[in-house]
Amino acid sequence: MLFLTFANINNRGNCYFYFLQGLLSMVFIIYAKRASTLLRWFFVSLFLLSLATKIPAKDGVRFSNDYVLIINSHTESSSWSNNLISPVMDNVSATSGLDVFTEHMNMVVLDNENLLSDFQDYLFEKYQAKKPRLLILLDTSTVLLKEGIKQHWKDIPTILCAEQDFIGSPSSYFKKKALAPEERIPLSKFLECCNLTFLHSPVYTKENVDLMRYVIPNMNKLIFVADERYINLHISWELSELIKEEYGQIKYEFLSAEKITTDELMEKLSYVDNFRTGVLFSSWLQTANVAGNTLLLANSHKIFAANSTAPLFCLRYSNIKNDGMIGGYVFDNDAYINKLLATITEVLNGTEPRDIPYYCPSRGVPVFNYAMLLQKGLSLDVCPPGSRFIAMPPTFFQENKYLLLTCLLGLVGFIFLLIQQNRIRSLRRVKDAQEKLKNTNDKLAMVLGVANILSWKWDVQSKTIHYDLNKKLEEENSNNIQESYLLTEEQYFGQIADEDCDSIRQAYESVKEGKVKRINTQYRVNRFNGRFEGVYWVEAHAVVATWDKSGKPRTIIGSLLDITERKRMEEALVLEKERAEESSRLKSAFLANISHEIRTPLNAIVGFSTILLATEDEEEKQEYIDIIEKNNELLLQLVSDIIDLSKIEAGSLDFNYSDVELNELMQELEVTVSPKINQNKVALVFEPGLPVCHLYTDKSRVAQLLLNMLINAAKFTTEGSIRFGYEKRENTLYFYVTDTGCGIPKEKQEAIFKRFVKLDDFSQGTGLGLSICQVIAQQMGGEIGVESEEGKGSTFWFTLPYDSLTAK
C-alpha cells in the first residue's frame, strides 16, 4: 500500500508537487464518475505517475546545520497544522538561523501497528545523523512515538501542541473511536517523565453550539460534518452527549467523510433549512483506492464551503480565516502563536521544557469571516456582542491613521505657535489692562451706586467704620460730592432700631472675636436728615479681611443694601398669602356646606317621589310634583354654579356671541320667573328701554345674569314689586333688577360679590351666584353693582358695551 505522508516541507520543490497532486485529486473527484472509460484510465495513470515519483526514500539526511523537527499527526494540507507550522518556520529561520523540517504522520491512513512501525523506521533512519535541537509535536496521536523518541533521542526538548489534554491507548487511535471519560489518561501523568511542555489548543464544543443558536435562534437541528479521524469522533461523541443533556429539542446528525462523497455532501447541504439547521464543520479528508494504492484526497472541503448556500460554522480559527467558513467560537489565535514562538525561543535559549508551565488559553471569543458573512447574506447584527471579525475593511480612521497623526502633530505645533504668539500679545496688553483697571473700578463704583449698595471697612483696632459713598448718576458732574465718611462703632450702632440693636451688636462682636468668619443679616435703621424721617430696612454682609499676628480679626469688610422696598413686597405677599388662606378656608366651608345644600333638594326629590307613588289624591300629587320640580330647579342651579366656578378657576369660561333681541329675551325671563313668585303679593314688571333692541352678545350669559338677580329678588321679596329692564346710556346698556324686599345693610354690600358669601345662612344656595355674575360681566366688558337701603329694597345692576353701528 502506498500513501503520501513523509515529506520535508523545507524543500520548496515538494510544495509545488503537492499542489499539483492536490489539483489532480480534485479533478479526479469531480470528473471520475462522469468521464468515459478512456478518460478514467487517463486520470488513474496520472495518479500512479504522481505516486511513483514521490515514494519517500529511506536514505539518511546529511545536516550541515542544527535544525528543529516538527512531527504533524495530520496531513500537510491540514489547516490546523499549517496555522502553526508556517509561523514557526518563518520565525525560527529568521531569528535563530536553524533549519526547520516537517514530517506528517497522516493518521487518517495510519491504522495499525505495522504502519506506525514503518513510519518510525523511516523517521529515525532519516534523521539518524544528527539529533534535532528541538522537537515539536502536533496533536496527541504523536505521543504514539514516545518510546521510539526516548530510545533514539533520549531526553530531547519537546513541545506538544494538541487539542486535547489527555490521551488514550494506541488502539483507540488506530480504530478511530472516541474515548469514554474512564479511558482517558491525563497528559500530565503520562508525560511526567519527559522533557516536555504542553500548549493546549482547546476545541469549544458547547460554546460553538451556543453561538450557532444565537445566530440561528430557531435552530432545531445540528449537522456535524467531519472525517472519521479520532479527534472528530471524539468531538461527535461530545456533541451528542451535550445535546442529550442540555439541548434535548435539537436533533443531531453526523455526516462522515467515510460514509458519503463530497458530491453527496454538497447535495445534502443544498437542502438545508438555513433558518432551522446549523452546520458545524471540523475537517474533511477522504481516501480513495487507486490501482491497489490508498490515495488521500485533501482540501475538498473548500469546494463545498465555497458553493454551499448554508452558512458553515467551524471549530478552528484556521478554517474561518482560510477555508470559507463563516465563523466559530475559538481562542485568540495570535496570542497562542505568540506563546508558541516565545516558548520555542525560551527552549532554544537553554530553558528545559519541563520547567515551563503548561499553557491553556484563558477563554475564547466568537470570530467571524466578514467576507463570508456578506457572501451568505448575513449582517453583523446576527453576531453576538464582543465578536471579532477577520478581513473586515478598515475604518476611515484606521485607513488614514498616519495621515491623521501627521495632521494632529501639525495642529499641535500650530496651537503651540498660537499660544506663543498669544503670550507675546498678552505681555503687550498688560499695560493696557493696568490703564483700564481704574476705569473698571470706576464702573464698579457706579454699578454699586445704581444698585444702592454701600461698601464699608471696619478697623477693629481703631473701632472706626469707613464708608465709601456711591455717586448718583445724575450727580456725576457735581464737584461737591463727598466720597466717604467715618463713623465710630457707637455712632454706627446708635442708628440701628432698638428692636434689632442688641442682636446685631452681638453678631458683629462674634466676628470681631473670631468666633465666626462671616455674617449675613437684616435689620432696621432709623433714618435722620435733620429730623426723623422713618425706619428703613438694610441687608448687611460682613467677612473678615485680615488677621493680626495673634490670629484675631484686624479688619472686616462688608456691604449694606437698602431692602426697604423688598420688605414691603414681602409684607404684601404675606398679606396676600393670608387672604389666599382665608379664601381656602371659605372654600373648605363651602365644600362642607355644599354637601348639605345638595342633600336638601335630593332628599326632597327622593322623599316626595316615594310618597307620590303611594298617594291617590290628585291635588296632593300635584303639590308633591311642584315640590319635586322646585327642588329639581334648585339642584340644577347648584350644579350650574359649581360648573361655572370650576370653569372660572380653570380660566375656560366660554362665550358664544350672536345677535340677540333683548325684548324677546326679557319676556322669556318674565315667563320663567313668574311661577317662582307669589303673584298675589308681588308684581313682576318688565320695563323695556327701547321698542326694539338688538345686541351682539352671548344670550345665555346675559340670561344667566338677569335670572340670577331676579331669583335673588324673588327670594327676598315677600310683597310689593320686582321691576327689571334696561336703559341705553351712551355706549353702554344698563340692566337693572329693582325689588321692594328686605334690602342689604351698607356694610355688607361690598361682600355679597365675594365667593361663598350668604347674607342669610338659612336661605338655600351656595353663595356663588353673584360672584359668578361679577366674573361674567367683567369678561364681557361691563361692570356690576348694587344699590340698597335696609328695609326699603335693592337694585342690582350691570352694564354691557353697546355699539349702535354694529348692533343689528
Could you explain the architecture of this structure?
This protein is an alpha/beta fold and 808 residues long. It has 23 helices and 29 strands. It has a 6-stranded antiparallel β-sheet with strand order 19-18-17-22-21-20, sandwiched between helices. Strands 2-1-3-4-7 form a 5-stranded parallel β-sheet, with helices on one face. The longest helix has 51 residues, at 564-614. The model is unreliable at 1-20, 28-59 and 471-482 (pLDDT under 50).
Shape: elongated
Q: How many DSSP E strands?
A: 29
Q: What is the residue-averaged pLDDT?
A: 79
Sheet-strand content, in percent, reads 15-25%
What would the keywords be for this entry?
about 45% helix, about 800 residues, 6-stranded antiparallel β-sheet, elongated, alpha/beta, 5-stranded parallel β-sheet
Topology of this structure?
Elements (H helix, E strand, L loop, with lengths): L11 H20 L5 H17 L13 E6 L6 H17 L3 E6 L8 H14 L7 E5 L7 H8 L4 E5 L3 E2 L2 H5 L10 E2 H4 L5 E5 L4 H11 L5 E6 L3 H17 L4 E6 L5 H9 L6 E5 L4 E5 L2 E5 L3 H7 L4 E3 L2 H6 L4 E5 L1 H16 L15 E6 H6 L12 E3 L5 H4 L1 H50 L2 E7 L4 E5 L15 E5 H6 L3 H15 L5 E11 L3 E16 L5 E10 L1 H51 L3 H33 L7 E4 H12 L8 E6 L6 E4 L1 H18 L3 E10 L2 E8 L29 H11 L4 E6 L3 E9 L7
Parallel strand pairs: 1-2, 1-3, 3-4, 4-7, 8-9, 8-10, 10-13, 15-16, 24-26
Antiparallel strand pairs: 5-6, 11-12, 14-15, 17-18, 17-22, 18-19, 20-21, 21-22, 23-25, 26-27, 27-29, 28-29
Helix pairs in contact: 1-2, 3-13, 19-20, 21-22, 22-23
